Amino acid sequence: MERSRAASIESIETAQPSLQAGLRRADRMRKLRAFGLVAPLLAFLLLTFVAPILDMLRRSIVDTDLSEVWPHVTQATRIWTDRSKLPSPAVFDALAADLAGSYRNQTLATAARRLNYALDNGRSLVFGTARKLPATSGDWTSTLKQIDPRWGELKTWAAIDQASGPLTSYFLLAALDLNKTANGSIVGVAAERAIYIDVLRRTFIVSFAVTILCLILGFPVAYLLATQPPRRANLLMILVLLPFWTSLLVRTAAWIVLLQEHGLVNDALIWLGVIDHPLRLIYNRIGVLVAMTHILLPFQILPLYSVMKGIKPAYMRAATSLGASPTEAFVRVYLPMTLPGIGAGALLVFILALGYYITPALIGGAADQMISYFIAFYTSDTINWGMASALGTVLLVATLTLYWVYNRLVGVTNVKLG
Amino acid sequence: MKSKTAILAITAAVIMAAASVSAEARDLSVVSWGGAYQNAQKKVYFEPFRKATNLPMTDESWDGGIGVLRAKVKGGNSTWDVVQVESDELAVGCEEGLFETIDWAKIGGQANYIKSAVNKCGVGAILYDFVLGYDTTKLKTPPTSWADFFDTKKFPGKRALRAGPKTTLEIALMADGVAPKDVYKVLGTKEGVDRAFKKLDTIHQDLIFWKAGAQPPQLLASGEVVMTSVYNGRIDAANRDDHRQFGISWNGALFTLDSWVILKGTPNLAAAYQLLNFMGKAENQAKLPEAIAYGVTANGANALIDKARLAQLPTAEANLAHAVEINTAFWLENIDRLTERFNQWAAK
A126-174: per-residue pLDDT in tens? Predict the structure, then answer.
C-alpha cells in the first residue's frame, strides 16, 4: 500500500503523461482498500442474512422429498395425462417397485410424511400398504387396490403427482388457504382448516395497533426528553433505556405477574374500588397489546428524540411571533419537522412487531398467536420445513409490499433512523 | 520458523491420533434430558453401572429432535450410543432405521417389562402422565374426572389446557363420556373430532391455554385457574419443592413413555446392552422415583418402592387403571391438520 502510493507520487513527479494513469491507480487502490474494509461485513451479511432468506424462498417451492425416495412413480406420473381416469398399469407397477424399494431402504417414512401433508391418513396408507405388499404380482393395479381401495381414488394420485417435484405450488397455496384439485384448478381449503389468511391479517392488525400505541405514548415522552435540561433528560432517558436493556423474557414474565387475575393491576383496582371483579387483562388481545407496546416503546422514542433534539426552539418562537397560536405552531411547524422521526420509529416498531413470537405465546390466548407461532410449529414441532418456508415467504412478500406502499406515501428518504 | 512448523506438525499429529483413537474405541456414551432428571439417573444408574462393570462411560444431555439423531447416525462417526427419546422420536427413528432393533434376550426378555415399554427399537425408561391438577386449598370437593373439568356450575372459574389439539381433544372426548380405551377409535373418525370440538365449545369462554410445561403449576399457584391439565411430575415438584398442596385426579390420565434406544452402527453395542440390562433391573429402577415422580417400567419394581411414594406415581395400579396411552401413530398422522382445526376453533 505504502509502496504503491510512493510509486504513484514518483510517477507524478517524473513523467507528466502517466500522471492520469497514476491518479487512476491511486484511486483504484483507495477503492480497493475501502472495499477491503467493508468486505467482512458484506460477507457476514451474505452468509447470515441473504443466504438464509434465499434458502427459505427455495424451500417454499422446491419439493424433492418424494422424488428422492420414490424415483420411479414420480417419473411415471408424467405419462398420466387423462386426469379424469386412473393412471395406466405402468404407473401402478412403478408405485409397487418404489413401495418395496423404500420399505427395504427404510426411506418409507419420508414418502409417508410428504404424502400425509396433502392426503388425509396418507401416512397409514403408505405404511399399511408397504407392510402388506406381496413380493410379486401379475397385476399391481388390482393388487394395490385390494390392499387399500384408496389407491383407486383420483385424489390419491393427484397428491402423488403434486408431490413429484421438483417444484411445487403446494406449500405456498396452503399458506394462503388454497389447494389444487385433481384436475388442476385452485380452490379454497375446507373452512375448518383455513387459518393462515386469518393469522396473517391478525399479525398485521396487532403490529399496526402496537405501532399506533407506541406512537401515541412515545411522542410526548420524546418531546419531554428533548425539551428538559440535560440533567433531568438524562435521568428520564435511563428510565426509558433500563427496560430496553432487560431481557425480553423477563419483561414478558413481569407482565404476567402484573396482569393476571389476582395480579398487581387487578388487586390495586379492586382495592381502590374502581372495579368489583377482576378484569381479563391477560391471555387475550389486551395483554398482548400492552406487553408488546411496552417492549417496543423505546424503538419509537429513540428516533423521535434524536429528531426533536435537532429542532431549534427558535422555529416555534418565530411562528408564535408571526401570530400563530401555540396549537397552530405545533401542528404546522413542529409536527412536520418530526415526521422523519415518526416514520423511522413507526417503521422499526411495525417490522419488529411482525416477527413477535414469545410474548404472544405466553401472554396471548389461543386466538392471538401470530404467524411466527405457526412458523415455529412447522419448523420444530412437525419438521414440515416446506410449510414453514412458505409461511415465511408469504410474510416477507406482504411486508415488502407494505414497505413499497409506505415508500410511495411517505418516502423512505424522509426517515431518520437514530 | 522451523520450530513453529515443527510444533504445528506435532499438534496436528496429536489431534489426528486423538481423533482416530476416539473413532475406533471410544467410551460408551449415554444421552438423556439433563437437569434434575439426569442427575437422578446419574445417581441410580450411571455411577453404579460404572462401579459394577468398570466400563468407561460418559453421559451427555440433549433437547430432543429427530433431526439431531438423523445427523448423528447418517453422518457416520456418531459419538452417542444410548439415547433417551420421546415416543415421537422413537416411532419416526425406528421407521427410518436410525436405531438398533432391540434384542430382548440380552436385557432380560420382554416379560421383564410392562407391556407399553416394549417396542421394536426401544425399551421404555419412564412413564409419565398428563393429569387433571388442582389446588386442594381452593377446591373443597376434589374434581374426580374430566367431566368435572368441564362442569363450570359445580366448579366455577377458569381452567387451562395445553395449547394445541394433542391431549386436549382426548380430554374433551373423555369428558363427553368416551371410555379411555375408546378415545382414539372415536377420534379417528370425523364425527369424533367434531364431537371433541363441540365439547370444547361448552367451556370456550373459561379456557386458558398454556404452552410451556412450567406454566400450569404457576397458573394454579396464582389462582388464575381452578383446574388444569398438567404433567404429573410438575405437580409433584411443586408440592415437594414449593410446599404447595396441589392435588391430582388420575382418572382419565393420558400417559406416554420415554424410551432408551441404541443408535444404529454403534461400536459399543455389547456395552450398550449391558447398560440397558442394568437399567432394566427392577431393583435398580425402584430407586429412581424417590428423586422424581416418574413411573418405571420393570415388572416388580413397584413392589420395591415405598408405598406412600408409589401412590404418587403414574404406574401405581390404581393410577394406571383408568389411564390411556397417548397414541403416537395417530398424532404423527394428524397433528398438522388438527392443529389447523384447533386454531380455527380457538379464533372463533
Answer: 999 999 999 988 899 999 999 999 999 998 999 999 899 899 999 999 9
Give the DSSP letter of residue A167: B
The residue that leads in pLDDT, B56 or A5, is B56
Model confidence over A100-131: pLDDT tens digits?
999 998 899 999 999 999 898 999 999 999 99
* Residue A166 preceded by cis peptide, ω within 30: yes
SS3 for A322?
A: coil
The count of residues in chain A is: 418
Cell of B21: 483413537
Per DSSP, chain B holds a count of helices (H) and strands (E) of 17, 10
Residue type, A190: A
CB neighbourhood size of A241 (10 A): 13
Asked whether the beta carbons of residue A261 and residue B222 sit closer than 8 angstroms, the reply is yes
Whole-angstrom distance, CA of residue B242 vs CA of residue B326? 29
DSSP string of B257-289? EEEEEEBTT-TTHHHHHHHHHHHH-HHHHTTHH
**A99 in contact with B at a CB cutoff of 8 Å?**
no
- The stretch B14-29 carries a mean pLDDT of 61
Query: Is pLDDT at B212 greater than 90 in this prediction?
Result: no
If you measure CA to CA, which chain B residue comes closest to A177? B340
Q: For residue A65, what are the contacts with CB-CB under 8 A and spacing of at least 6?
A: A110, A111, A113, A114, A163, A165
CB A418 within 8 A of CB A300: no
Bigger pLDDT: A83 vs B226: B226
Q: What is the mean pLDDT of chain B?
A: 91
User: Residue B5's pLDDT band (boundaries 50, 70, 90)?
Assistant: low
CB B31 within 8 A of CB B59: yes
Positive or negative torsion for Cα B204, B210, B216, B218: negative
Mean pLDDT value of segment A397-401: 93
Residue of A nearest to B99 (CA): A106
- Which regions of chain B does DSSP assign to beta strands (E)? 28-32, 57-61, 82-85, 123-135, 159-162, 207-210, 227-231, 246-262, 295-296, 324-325
Phi first, then psi, for residue A357 (nearest 5°) are -135, -55
**Cβ-based contacts under 8 A for chains A and B:** 84
Q: CB A262 to CB B333 under 8 A?
A: no
Instruction: Specify whether the CB–CB gap between A69 and A110 falls below 8 A.
Output: yes
Dist. CA A73–CA A94, nearest whole Å:
5
Q: How much is the pTM? A: 0.87
Query: Is the confidence at residue B9, as pLDDT, over 80?
Result: no
Strands B227-231, B159-162: pairing is parallel
Out of B66, B97, B346, whose CB is closest to A366? B346
